[in-house]
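Thread: Modeling a multi-component assembly for a lab meeting

Hi all, long-time lurker, first post. My supervisor asked me to bring a structural picture of a complex we are working on to next week's group meeting, and I have zero experience with this. I have the sequence lines for every component (392 residues in total). Could someone generate the structure of the whole assembly? Inputs are pasted exactly as I received them:
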Amino acid sequence: MVKVEVFKTEMCPHCPKAVALVKEVAKDLKNVEVEIIDAMQNPKRALEYGIMAVPTIVINGAKKIVGTPSKEEFIKALTSVE
Amino acid sequence: MEEKDLIIIGGGPAGLSAGIYAVRNRLKTLVLEQALPGGLIAEASLVENYPGFLEIKGMELAEIFRKHAEKIGVEIKQFEEVLQIEKNEIFKVKTNNSEYLAKAVIIATGERHAELNVPGEAELKGKGVSYCATCDAPLFKNKKAVVVGNGRAAVMSALLLADIASEVKLIVKEKKIISEEVLKEKLKNSRANVLLSTEVREIFGDSVVKGIKVYDREKKQEYNIDADGVFVYAFVWKKPNVGFLKNLNVGLDDRGHIITNERQETNVKGLFAAGDVTSFPVKQVVVAAAQGCIAALSAYEHIKGLRGEA
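Re: Modeling a multi-component assembly
Sure thing. I ran the full set together rather than chain by chain. Output:
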């Protein structure tokens, strides 16, 4: 199981795209657990990962992707940590 | 292959306004948006100059545009990026998902933020370097921030950060601020400190941003400014989104914006453009919406001509 955390903020217009991408890929791959985190409501977790921009996608608590990657780039990043 | 009367590329104010006018003229219309409808205005922390709204968040205004368009029957496909357009008898629009035919096309793809292109910027992107203050400003609470750029968006970002960060500097390369007088007054009364005639030469840090190296063009001096966040937010350096048009020989100005006449027609018959992607110098929501209307009505006339109804 791969854990994917997506950090967003309420006013971020680019975040819904990242959330939609992650959910779409997770639905296809099935072994992906997704959590959407509001960086402002969870500042401790944002600080833990050093989140300084949103959207940021964190894979298995280690690999960080800032912004929204293409579907292919995201799948590649997921498979590289499995 | 699906065929439409009109394909509108871009779901910002220009594109959605065009969609509304097209559907009301019973054109079979499709809006293709590479992300979510709304355009760059969705990034605006506050919009105070769109008639009918004393003040509204950019995201909320964008959402109202979307709802209006969808309610009257504009078909919007989001997350669908146009890769190429070909023209024979009619247009063939190729996207990342599909291909469509259309009798007319309106380009309303707006602009994107440009980079500063200084050392350290690429390496520290997402580590303190941001291109969206509305997105990332809350993460810089009680930290030092600089906004680099000029124009309305830069001023709005500095004002937003002045309420959040411990200190804010607006670094402006030019000798004066280019913005509405109202915003200049707000800036003057805010906690933001403005440095004019100052250009950024480097963004430095290790794993995160630590500061910027600037050059004072008046005093001809270079010095460092401590900063945790660098917001690059400069409309004067924005770039139009026209990469997918390379096959069509569309007339562009020296900055790459699409040249249109007062009917929003380009040099390619049946191809129209509206909003920030055009060479028209005033980049405002109200202008984009108006140009969207004109483009849609011009496209309607063009399509009537093809049908022999003109």
